[in-house]
Amino acid sequence: MSLKFTRRKLATLLSGAGASLAFHGAASSPAHAESEARSAASFPKGFLWGSATASYQTEGAVRDGGRGPSIWDTFSHTNGKVAHGDTGDIADDFFHRYQSDISLMKQMGLKGFRFSVSWSRIQPTGRGQANQAGLDFYKKLADALLAAGIEPFCTLYHWDLPQALQDQRGWENPDTAAAFADYAGLVAGALSDRVRQFMTMNEIRSFVELGYGNGMHAPGLQVGPRRLAQLNHYAVLGHGMAVQSIRALAKKGTEVGIADNVDAVCPVIADETNIAAARSAMREENASFLSVILDGRYSEHYLSRLGADAPHFTEQELKVIASPMDFVGLNIYQPRWVKAADTPTGYEKLKDPASYPHMLSPWLTFGPEALYWAPRLVHENWRVGKLFITENGASSADVVSEDGQVYDTDRTMYLRNYLHALQRTVAEGTPVRGYFVWSLLDNFEWADGYEKRFGITYVDFPTQKRIPKLSAKFFESVVKQNRVM
Ligand code: FCB
After folding, report:
1. pLDDT of residue 33
2. What is the DSSP annotation of 56-114?
3. Whole-angstrom Cα distance, residue 328 to residue 243?
4. Is the CB of residue 343 less than 8 Å from the CB of residue 265?
């Protein structure tokens, strides 16, 4: 089939929601449009569409406003740790450009923005009095979002631990959990007059396993299984303590949650037996993260699997870890296929064959089903009243075409299919209230540096020019129609 559009013509057609709707409308007869409307994969009214970012990945300005060094400054400035020696020193320069970036969000019709606070902007050494300049930055950011009609969602810890705390053993030291709770209360106390939704931590599994397990992320340690399980325990404890200090210090009506990357288990075949197996897998595979947080105990399998390496804990600590939350945020990227099996846990994880499709990041296997099953199984296991998809998105080998546009057809395809799966689970009653695409902007992708782009907006890093990609126009059209086609 030959398509008669040149790229330039297509760019013109796509340059704005109105135009892209016109493109769609032109291809439909009235009768077709009507039947399309009937089968429309609509989201509920008020569904919150947003985008997500994190401090170290976007802000830059690492020495501005009294900010202290974080473990990511140290790590990225250590030879051989990050691709091409990239650092977050400048990143998207979001610290100075947040206003124009908010305009981009407004243009897309976004109603939510998830950002994180850099702990060492607030407490340069991780403890003590708040640095007013740091708090002021996030106050101004929240005000600018509110003025644009965008609800701020604030993550308190997206991996950039103050270096001074790492110098005292970081998350291996239980005092870090207490310091985190103090910091969380301090920030929520200062911002809750304008920010209603706080998430304590982003992806505990990632900063534990990559930071201290295989050393791929800051602080780059490989501590061995026993110490890993213990610091994992201090991290979930820090989460629970932070929930309590936010409750104590934030304005009434403040909502507290977490952004967690559950292992998104999916049944290979959707029959009763395999679905039940996937439900158990959801609990077991997330035993030391979301499961202990929502169950208030470590599962028998988890403890017996670790044996002598199991963490030391008290009943009182488990209670704190399970402090009630108002919502659970899920970061979902790739599926983990499981099947029912005659094993002690009743399931088996399947290894993907070498031919399994993935996005530019090799870890990011393609499986829209993840966005159907993960929220559904979380809800079935724990009856969480309110869920958000706090991250979902894809890396792509984006290039700027001769006409100045970025045609990320693969990311657009990824998002369209994942959103279809999300719509299905929402339509069936899973209480997902909003979706934050990762990410608004190309940014510092941790150990991959700037090589792996996840933005729906292209960033030309030398000039800091922003170019909304095809996927941004696609997302805008989903947001404005509140449905996925
Ligand atoms: C998630 C992280 C986020 C980003 C995406 C691609 O695990 O939370 O910061 O790196 O992956």
Report:
1. 64
2. HHH---TTGGGPPPBHHHHHHTSTTSSGGG--SSSTT-HHHHHHHHHHHHHHHT--EEE
3. 12
4. no
Which token pair is 309? 């390496």
- Quick check: 120 and 67 in contact, CB under 8 A? yes
d(CA 477, CA 485): 9
Low-confidence ranges of the chain (pLDDT < 70): 1-28, 30, 32-39
**pLDDT tens per residue across span 283-339:** 999 999 999 999 999 999 999 999 999 999 999 999 999 999 999 999 999 999 999
From the list 203, 284, 285, 445, the catalytic residue is 203
Q: How far apart are CA 208 and CA 140, in angstroms?
A: 32
Separation of CA 260 and ligand 1 centre (Å) = 11
Active site (annotated) includes residue 203: yes
- pLDDT of 38 reads 56
CA distance 115 to 369: 26
Q: Which residues contact 192 (CB under 8 A, 6 or more apart)?
A: 198, 249, 250, 251, 254
Q: Which atom of ligand 1 is nearest to the CA of 445?
A: 10
**446 CA: nearest ligand 1 atom:** 10
Q: How far is CA 42 from CA 128, 434, 479, 484, in A?
A: 48, 13, 10, 7
381 vs 328: CA distance, rounded Å: 13
Is 59 catalytic? The answer is no
pLDDT on residue 12: 37
- DSSP H helices, 267-353, are 272-284, 292-295, 300-306, 315-321
Select from 206, 411, 415, 440 the residue to mutate for testing ligand 1; criterion: most ligand atoms less than 8 Å from CB. 206
* Catalytic pick among 284, 369, 391, 445: 391
pTM of the model: 0.93
How much is the pLDDT for 150? 99
| Residue 468 near residue 456 (C-beta atoms within 8 A) | yes
